[in-house]
Amino acid sequence: MKIQHRQTERHVLTITVDNEAGILAKIAGLFTARGYNIDSLTVADITEDHAVSRITIVTNGPPPVIDQIIAQLERLIPVHKVTDLSEIGPHLERELALVKVAGDENTCTEARNVAEASNARVIDSSPGILIVELTDTPDRIDNFIGLMRDRGLVEVGRTGIVGMTRGAESA
Amino acid sequence: MAEKSGAAILCDCLVRQGVEFVFGYPGGAVLPIYDELFSDNRIRHILVRHEAGAAHAAEGYARSTGKPGVVLVTSGPGATNAITGIADAFMDSIPLVVITGQVATNLIGTDAFQEADTIGLTRHCTKHNYLVKDPADLAATIEEAFEIATTGRPGPVVIDIPKNVQVASANGDQAPQRPKRYNPQVAAPEHDIVRAVEMLAEASRPVLYTGGGIINSGARATELLRELQALTGAPVTSTLMGLGAFPSDHPDWLGMLGMHGTYEANMAMNQCDLMVCIGARFDDRVTGRLDAFSPESKKIHIDIDRASINKVVHVDLPLIGDCAHVLDQLVSAWGDRKAADLGEWKARIADWKKRDSLAYPKQSKSGAIMPQRAIERLYELTRDRDPIVSTEVGQHQMWAAQYFGFDKPNRWLTSGGLGTMGYGMPAAIGAQLGNPDRLVIDIAGEASIQMNIQEMGTASQFRLPIKVFILNNEYMGMVRQWQELTYESRYSNSYSDSLPDFVKMAEAYGWKGIRIEDESQLDARIEAMMAHDGPVMVDCQVAQEANCFPMIPSGAAHTEMLLYGDMVAGTMDDEAKALV
């Protein structure tokens, strides 16, 4: 007998929740308990009184599983709203990456040029070391990191994405 | 502004919620609450013998009365012992509020004595859970917990209260108002109701597939189901959890469906052109092989939990709302339409019924009582008393579902989703407390009953005249049946060795013990069981080889049922073996 695997698609979900103890564990735990995937997860409170947090989860799964994920999230008492950005259409996604490069002078110069061409910002530099910051779509960050791999890349940190719809309404 | 301890606030809140009974067991981290209960005669504490018993007793109380069950246990092992019952209530949507003690807030996370991460452990088997860190938050938390447990899709809610929060004081006179944040949808949109009625009116082969959601929705839902059925003429089948919502002596009753359901119920599910699922969730025990499940039907699904919609079976029209409310909408929208002519459909069903799928051999090889026969006699001799029946889990549970008739809701208490052996006796205890004048019977197996046998002491202490009717075949019968079907009768660890003498055990606990060894004793000793004004344990020794039929083997379709005598000892391919 072989285990069957199904075709999956990527979805970006934003979830607004009561900012209460254990909520992140509840949401992350829901994904593990029911066998759903998390590609990235970001969370921070977004209201003046710190009472509400916004979580952005990038997940993947077959379309019926995505529907289940949304329904299961909505079932949690502290969850106010779940929005599937991938489903509602035009939306923006941004992620922040920090990339550290080390090498000889040539390598660093080359890395600096690539960074400038990619709209990345050098935020720290010392002889033989360069740290650059790039805020962009996940694809372009992937590309950028790919370019840096041949130019002395030693460390990458990424935030995971936050997303927003383009229309006047809020997610 | 009167200051009160957290423990006193808790007791006041429970009284305000109308709580009659708390099922519990004391321990270090709940001593302040127990000291409060000592002088508070507004709430009756039922001391169980193991915390699993407390949770199941609360479930039995809740299922038989429609009110939430309340549990009180200590931290660490108290909480972990209760978890099986909490998980059981979660699967079967039973409203529980479970109060667990916790080590003092300054000790949390230090591996303190009897510390367990109760919130983490119960996160995925509760509808919601709370750790209360300030007595000022207790009143609002308890109020919300009861609301969450009892409304929407009911379920268990855990409130973990550290010991210092029970001792510390806060203003206890009024619950601070917290904005209402739980608002389940109860009514379905009117245009969907209109569409559902059109589908019902046009169907020539409809079936109503009903579940525990109707029982949870209350007595009104049961009445409305009967009204809708009378208007449409559609035949009715039910899941294990929904038994009692529709009368078992009605001509359009098909019997239970699913793995051990009747031939006519499963064939009707397979051949219908419209399926109306009401408060059920397409469990794997119901659907059989999914790709062969009811291939030609349109499906309407009424459920208060949106996550149940399209979870395993795609439906054409979801109606999200409370069963009673949506049924009321359907009955109103039906108006004075005339029912379609279902003559041809009913004739097909009548043919399936002729197969008599619940037939079984009247004589066993050894001459011992056939267990099905024992249930039939128990039903016939007790039905006038309108009993409440609980069960454990296994063959006896399926036989009880098949051969005991139910015609009213809240009479049938069984562990459906989780399949928890040891559920039945504590559930009977809870049901007897909630229904002191009723006959309450736990139909048990000799293996299951031993899982919470200690609760005999609880029944003795509180003078609860429950009847435990054990079908003793000296095997974990359902395990043995599967081993015959799938593993060439290699009975790996399914023999009930070293059984106690159940009659002597009954006597040791101050119960009456009765043994039934021969069919000629059956009726008289069932009568003797009922005649005794106190708890009774009956050891009914039944045919060891009897199996539970009809049966849809795992991985098979509704049309591939085995009837009695079809089963051959054998083996199965790995795909089938991998299914539970």
Structure explained in plain terms:
The complex is a heterodimer of chains A (171) and B (580). Chain A has helices at residues 23-33, 63-75, 85-88, 105-117, 138-149, and strands spanning 9-18, 40-45, 52-61, 79-84, 91-102, 121-126, 129-136, 153-158, 162-165. With 171 residues, chain A is an alpha+beta fold. In chain A, the strands form two sheets. In chain A, strands 5, 6, 7, 8 and 9 form a five-stranded antiparallel sheet that branches. A four-stranded antiparallel sheet of chain A has the order 2-3-1-4. In chain A, a hairpin with a 6-residue loop joins strand 2 and strand 3 (52-61). Chain B is an alpha/beta fold. Helix content of chain B is 37%, strand content 16%. Chain B has 22 helices and 20 strands. In chain B, the strands form four sheets. Chain B has a six-stranded parallel sheet with strand order 3-2-4-5-7-6, with helices on both faces. In chain B, helix 6 links the parallel strand 6 (128-131) and strand 7. In chain B, helix 3 packs parallel to helix 4, helix 3 crosses helix 17 and helix 15 packs across helix 16 (395-403). Chain B is globular and about 70 Å long. The model of chain B has no long low-confidence stretch (mean pLDDT 96). Classes of the chains: A alpha+beta (171), B alpha/beta (580). At the A-B interface, helix 1 and helix 2 of A face loops of B.
